[in-house]
Amino acid sequence: MITSYTQLKDALREVEIEFGAVSPQTRMQVLQDDGTHRHMRFEPPTASRRWEVVTWPGAVLLTGARGTWLFDRVGTDDVLPLMRPDHDAAHIDPIAWEFRLGAAGAESDTRTMEYIYDQEKAVDLVREAIAARAELKKRPDIVEDADNWIFSAVDTDLNTEIGLRTALARFEGQFESDYGPDLFPVDQWELYECRYAYGYLWACVALPWALKQYEDAKVSV
Fold first, then answer.
1. Local confidence band at 34 (pLDDT 50, 70, 90 cut-offs)
2. What is the full DSSP assignment across 179-216?
3. What is the percent of the chain where pLDDT is above 70?
4. Rounded to an integer, what distance in angstroms lies between the CA atom of residue 11 and that of residue 5?
């Protein structure tokens, strides 16, 4: 399942809140300022979270604890003005800027999406399969057996796909003669949610903020 626009906005809001909690204490150091060739270093309260922004004609690179993100498909020499978000938003558009990411390489992340195992959905699918088999076989007792062997067993781990498959295989092996084979069509289930990677959304929030710090510093000089 691909992230919906509502989920994307919620995820961005979470990133904005976290970023906003440390940005007032983040210090900027300009290491290079030569036309479109710029290099800024940003030091948050936690030293291990340091990050840097480098620009050159037609490209901007953000690198640090949240990954390395190179945008070089922008069609203009000076990239920084393009990072001004529309309508006073606190971030650049992740959907639009995804197409400006550079080609895959050792120096840049290109995986803007990540797949997260959805335990809640997995449990719902298991319960649906049990209910369907109970109806098919006219065996309501399967519900109690599933509670004892899958949902309440102390050695059951449904937090991962491996744990889920292990628990279901054990149940099928124990009760196949009672309830029939192929009870859980796990290979047909969508167990993962596809969403924008946190590091990519963080870059979308951090870059326009970095631009503002740089421009404010230029004005004050």
1. very high
2. H-S----GGGS--EEEEE-HHHHHHHHHHHHHHHHHHH
3. 91
4. 10
